[in-house]
Amino acid sequence: MTSRLARGLDQPVAKRTRAATKWRDWKNLPTDLVEDISGRLLTFDVAEYLRFRATCKPWRDYTDNPRTGDGMDTRFRPRDWIVLYRCSDPSGRTLVNVVTSARAYVNFPELATHDQLGTSDGLLVLVNKGGNDVSLLNPLTGALIRFPPLIIDAAVNLPSHYGPSSFLTDWLPVDATAIIGAGIDDSTSPSMLVLCLRPGRHPIVCAKPGDENWVYGRVSEKRTAGKVALVQSPVTFGGRCYFTTVAREIMALDLSPGARWPLLTFLLDKDPPVNAEISSFLIRSQGRMLMVRYMFGANLVQGGGYDETKIFMWRGCPSRMEVFEVDVTGRRLVGQSGVGDGQAAFVGAAHTVMVSTKKFSKIAANSVYLNYYMRQRGHFGAYHFEDRKATQPRAPKGRSRRLYPCACHWELEDYLVVCDV
């Protein structure tokens, strides 16, 4: 079956090439050559792989179908693609590659009957309207991966003196509005979907395709009591799922076999001290995982121990933006001079995106853009590492009267700032 993306993009490879070259028997290429070409394209971008398969039936026969299996295959995830809402069509979306700037308009009939809760590793997290059935939709391949309804096994939320007989009948529904982010952990087979919850007793719930119910995750230790009830900016990196907390720690999901429930463990052996208010975010960039930290408050200059040349004033408040590479193996943070030349980071509690400023020239390079919520609380719009300056939030160009953004009228910068999914 030809994917909806392949039908919405340019012509297949062979058709584009045939007009400029002499005739070749493209469909009867040697099998090993087809496999080699398709593998190279898949490494570059899954969209190019789909175009290649759409060319002819023999090429599809010699390559793996991304719609088969459980749909969780990591090779076919559209990590560099984002999905933008279109106000002109309830089920229509604009797909944008944040690395190459490629675009496509795709219609998703599933969105007529489902609401989008968030995005994880390029996949859309959906829940059916008026219900609690959860699915993952691959916007490039059209594969729909089904998960159990949002009902939690209450056994993991009961005091230890409750007996096993209590576990058979105690189930708790979860309100979909409590979900503030999503991640995927590939250390299990099939992979685990992780949903971050608003502040409460447990920060996450987890499930795999084929499970009967969701389970709560627990924190392995109370290093910062009361501050791990909320985790944010989930990132899938190296096959595992990582989060930050409101107290700026990095946590990793531990899904070791035989464990009664998923555990959240602290990654760093020693968290760097912070003498200020702080917001921290994780973001994946060019094979690395970065931590972006925004600190503010009088303590930055009152014995905070920070380089004063890297502290800036915003509305009379001392502020500082810093970036670290997360060394997972060494369990430490490595300081960086910014998010990187030719890149800009859009950060939010639910989702973070790194965008190529070489392809999107209206976005400032080596900069961090804060989301709409933080801007509404009096913070700046963007911080630029080259000149160490913050800029005012700008009024979105072509903004409609509704707050919810759309690809029809909004610039990409404004969309990513407002739409933290």
Question: SSE layout and pairings?
Answer:
Blueprint: H1 4-8, H2 13-18, H3 31-44, H4 46-54, H5 57-61, E1 81-85, E2 92-97, E3 103-107, E4 114-120, E5 123-128, E6 133-137, E7 144-149, E8 151-153, E9 171-173, E10 179-185, E11 192-197, E12 204-207, E13 215-216, E14 218-219, E15 231-237, E16 240-245, E17 250-254, E18 263-266, E19 277-285, E20 288-296, E21 312-314, E22 317-327, E23 332-336, E24 343-347, E25 353-356, E26 367-370, H6 372-376, E27 382-384, E28 389-391, H7 412-418
Parallel strand pairs: 14-18, 24-26
Antiparallel strand pairs: 1-2, 2-3, 4-5, 5-6, 6-7, 8-9, 10-11, 11-12, 12-13, 15-16, 16-17, 17-18, 19-20, 20-22, 21-22, 22-23, 24-25, 26-27, 27-28
Helix pairs in contact: 3-4
Largest sheet: 5 strands, mixed
Structural class: mainly beta
Low-confidence parts lasting 5 or more residues at pLDDT below 50? 155-171
Q: What's the N-to-C terminus distance? A: 29 Å
Q: Helix proportion of residues, in percent? A: 10-25%
Number of domains: 3
Question: What is the topology, as strand order, of the major beta sheet?
Answer: 14-18-17-16-15
Overall residue-averaged pLDDT value: 83
Instruction: Note the overall shape.
Output: globular
Radius of gyration: 23 Å
Beta fraction:
25-35%
Tally of separate helices: 7
Total DSSP E strands:
28
